[in-house]
Design a protein that fits this description.
The chain is an all-beta fold. The protein has no helices and 11 strands. The strands form 2 sheets. Strands 2, 4, 5, 6, 9, 10 and 11 form a 7-stranded mixed beta sheet that branches. Strands 1-3-8-7 form a 4-stranded antiparallel beta sheet, with no helix packed on it.
Length: about 120
């Protein structure tokens, strides 16, 4: 049984930083691309960032480029999302996801999902 468990969300001020973590179990983590999507109230779930199975090269949604960094630690079965210079528009539930090997941006391509962690940024 695959489980993805997120942590690290919270309430912060604009300009602050947060680091989200997602620890996976029940899959061969090193062979999975891992990603983060986010969903704001009343809006669709959208791609934020992802890293493929073989490297730390990240893919990012345009609005977070230069502010967010995704990384993975295969020894800990964990993927991280370092979020700097947070803005109120970053407020959302952030969900961890995984799929075999390669990154795809469309939501339908991802196989497993966590429950999400809330990030709230106030101005």
């Amino acid at each position: 049984q695959v489980q993805l468990v997120e942590s690290g969300g919270g309430s912060v001020q604009a300009g602050d930083s947060l680091r989200l973590s997602c620890t996976a179990s029940g899959l061969t983590f090193s062979t999975y691309a891992m990603g983060w999507f986010r969903q704001a109230p009343g809006k669709e779930r959208i791609f934020v960032a992802a890293v493929d199975w073989s490297s730390d090269n990240g893919w990012y949604e345009d609005s977070v480029k230069g502010r967010f960094t995704i990384s993975r630690d295969n020894a800990k079965n964990t993927v991280y999302l370092q979020m700097n210079s947070l803005k109120p528009e970053d407020t959302a539930v952030y969900l961890c996801t995984g799929r075999p090997y390669t990154v795809l941006r469309d939501i339908e391509s991802w196989d497993y999902w966590g429950q999400g962690t809330q990030v709230t940024v106030s101005s």
